[in-house]
Amino acid sequence: MVIYHVILLLVLSRAAASPGQANLTSMLALQAERVMTLGEWEERWHDDRIGFHQPDVHKLLENNIEKVLAGRAEVSFFFPLCGKAVDMKWLADMGHSVVGVEISEKAIKQFFEESNLTYSEEPVAAIPGAKVYKSSEKNITLYQCDLYNFSSSIHGQFGAIWDRGSLVAINPQDREKYASLIISLMAKDCRYLLDTLLYNAELHKGPPFLVPDEQVHSLFGSSCNIELLQSVDALTDRYRGWGLDSLTENVHLVTLKA
């Protein structure tokens, strides 16, 4: 918690010096103490309150897939907080391998059922209470556990990471811990596609949470190169219903420094 607040102060001090971002300090502070428990996320899945799920492959992944692959075949992809993202089967159909982590057993089972894939289920010896689900037809392996109990010792490192709805969903006070985990899962050639959201935090308490570009650089910049690939207006009627008057979706390419 102390380290998180140090990072927050660094981000805020940078923001205060940047023209046009004088209110970033108050924006981040509004959400800094917001906490969602794992039980609350499981409850959302149980009650089908999953407006964050997208029935189609994410356009920003489609648009930038070549930059993620960089000419590579059979890339190992990691999906933090994967839910039942259809992006996983899309990548597996291309010949890539996919590993996801998700707390909701319902989400994992729905993914396999809705993808028409059979699967096996077994406990994970290294993580008490965790289970791993493996597709019989595709190279897809999904772990049901707390993300922070997962590590490279469980399933190695990855050549690519697709982070849509993960960094923006975790509790803001956990961002440094999250960044450390993600960096530890990156192989030397890993290309990490990170999706973030920008909006007025006075209008929505989160999740999904505001993650300004300055914080992306504070979290990953010491170890990684960061490139903003695309920025789009993502405001829809759903988000207007939350009271938002603007919403920008940014996708960054994060790679380890040599």
UniProtKB/TrEMBL annotation:
Highest taxon, organism lineage: Eukaryota
Query: How far does the signal peptide extend, from start to end residue?
Result: 1-17
Which species is the source of this protein? Scophthalmus maximus
Q: What class of enzyme is it?
A: transferase
Family the UniProt entry places it in: Belongs to the class I-like SAM-binding methyltransferase superfamily. TPMT family.
Extract the InterPro entries matched here. Answer: SAM-dependent_MTases_sf, Thiopurine_S-MeTrfase, TPMT
GO BP terms: namely:
methylation
* Gene3D superfamilies in the record: Vaccinia Virus protein VP39
Q: What is this protein called?
A: thiopurine S-methyltransferase
